[in-house]
Design goal:
Radius of gyration: 47 Å
Low-confidence stretches: 1-14, 393-400
Number of helices: 13
Distance between the termini: 14 Å
Shape: rod-shaped
Helix content: 55-70%
Order of helices and strands: HHHHHHHHHHEHEEHHEE
Number of strands: 5
Oligomer: single chain
Number of domains: 3
Structural class: alpha+beta
């Protein structure tokens, strides 16, 4: 029997969380281009409405803004290409041109610093992870820094120092953005790898469980077949070593008696041969009864154990006055033939004892399928078991009795418990382990 190896618990996978992250990632990707357009339009509106001393003429500003919008449209068209037609240089080329256009717009009017912020998003979205993305985010900080110092290139050391200070602050902010993005990417990759491992472990576990269930069913079938074969072989040996030899002896004695009679021998000799034949016949009959008694009962040849018990209980009900009820708990499953025979014989013997000794009005038979074992309980509300009467009944050939019941259970590694008090009834409990399920 194969035991599934320990591995990741598939229940720890969070496909719903992964789906939510993927959904937000797709939403951010779809919002990137519209956001850039909005930032560009807002910056252009401010540049045309609010006067700035360092601003370039409106015509120049409109031309630069038109070029930036056209470039965003080109990038949107490239994003719609199938993955097989995209090239690795598309993203870096787009980002480089976009940064150059953004610097030009900021030099035209510092209000285009609102649009410059979208450069961070384009760097994260279009550049490969690692150093290229880090460099892109750092470069994207330059247009925003120029906008914050008035949208003019520094002409003095003081102006250069101011630009450097603003650029340093923006680089710190950009570094935080890069770090957070890197953590998010690593977490996403880790979750994907973990989910893939869990899915693979789940598939392997499912396959092993299915194989284990198939092997259990196969072993159970083989056990049943082995039990039947063993019973047949035992019967063949019993018949060969006892009944067949007895019949041969009977034939020999009868032939000897006929020969003696034909030869006119002493009638006592003829009687001796006939007595010997009769004795052999009685011994062979006893041996045959013992061999047949040990066979698998006919009830179990026709039905499973619960149905066989129901048939035995029904037969007992028809010839006895107490009311009797059969209860089956747990999930019925095929058992080893010896287990079924033991439980059926215990039921028959217990009911026979109730009929002979208990003077009961109600009887309950409970068959319980428990993990690794089977339990049979026969309860009555009679006057209690009288050991002396039970022993007398066994001496008169009334059945196997508790001794035989215990022997059968012990042969299977089980036990029989008897609870009885005068006037409070009797309970006989038979517990046997189920071979192959942890106790066998």
């Amino acid at each position: 029997m194969i035991t599934a190896p320990a591995g990741p618990d598939p229940s720890t996978a969070d496909p719903a969380g992964e789906a939510v992250l993927g959904m937000w990632q797709r939403r951010l990707d779809r919002a990137l281009t519209p956001l850039a357009y909005v930032a560009l339009l807002v910056s252009l509106a401010l540049a045309l409405i609010v006067p700035v001393p360092t601003a370039r003429p409106a015509a120049v500003t409109l031309a630069a803004a038109g070029a930036a919008a056209l470039w965003l449209l080109v990038r949107a068209a490239l994003d719609r290409l199938p993955p097989g037609r995209r090239r690795g240089w598309h993203g870096p080329a787009h980002f480089t041109v976009l940064v150059a256009l953004t610097v030009l717009l900021v030099l035209c009017n510092p209000y285009f610093g609102f649009f410059a912020f979208s450069g961070y998003l384009h760097a994260v979205h279009h550049l490969p992870a690692g150093r290229p993305r880090i460099a892109g985010v750092l470069v994207a900080a330059l247009p925003g820094s120029l906008a914050q110092v008035g949208g003019v290139l520094p002409g003095t050391w003081r102006e250069f120092g101011s630009l450097l200070a603003v650029l340093s602050f923006n680089l710190v902010v950009a570094g935080v953005i890069v770090a957070l993005n890197g953590v998010t990417d690593r977490l996403s990759l880790s979750r994907k790898a973990a989910n893939a491992e869990l899915a693979d472990a789940n598939r392997r576990l499912t396959a092993l469980l299915a194989e284990n269930a198939g092997l259990q069913a196969q072993l159970l079938t083989q056990a049943r077949e082995a039990g039947i074969t063993e019973e047949r072989q035992r019967l063949a040996r019993e018949l060969h070593d006892t009944v067949a030899q007895g019949l041969a002896g009977i034939v020999t004695q009868l032939q000897a008696a006929d020969g003696a009679r034909e030869q006119g021998a002493d009638p006592a000799l003829v009687g001796h041969h006939l007595d010997s034949a009769a004795r052999l016949a009685r011994e062979s009959l006893d041996q045959a009864r013992r061999a047949v008694h040990a066979l698998r009962p006919q009830e179990l040849e026709r039905a499973e154990l619960p149905e066989a018990l129901a048939e035995a209980v029904d037969r007992w009900r028809r010839r006895s006055t107490p009311t009797v009820a059969l209860t089956v708990t747990g999930d019925p499953r095929p058992l080893h033939p010896q287990v079924e025979v033991t439980l059926l014989r215990a039921t028959q013997e217990s009911l026979a004892n109730v009929a002979r000794h208990a003077d009961a009005t109600r009887v309950g038979v409970t068959l319980s399928y428990l993990p690794g074992q089977i339990t049979l309980d026969v309860r009555d509300d009679g006057r209690g078991l009288d050991p002396a009467r039970a022993a007398a009944s066994r001496a008169e050939g009334g059945g196997f009795g508790l001794t035989a019941m215990r022997r059968r259970a012990q042969d299977l590694g089980g036990h029989v418990e008897l609870e009885t008090e005068p006037g409070l009834g009797t309970t006989v409990s038979v517990t046997v382990p189920e071979p192959g399920r942890g106790n066998g």
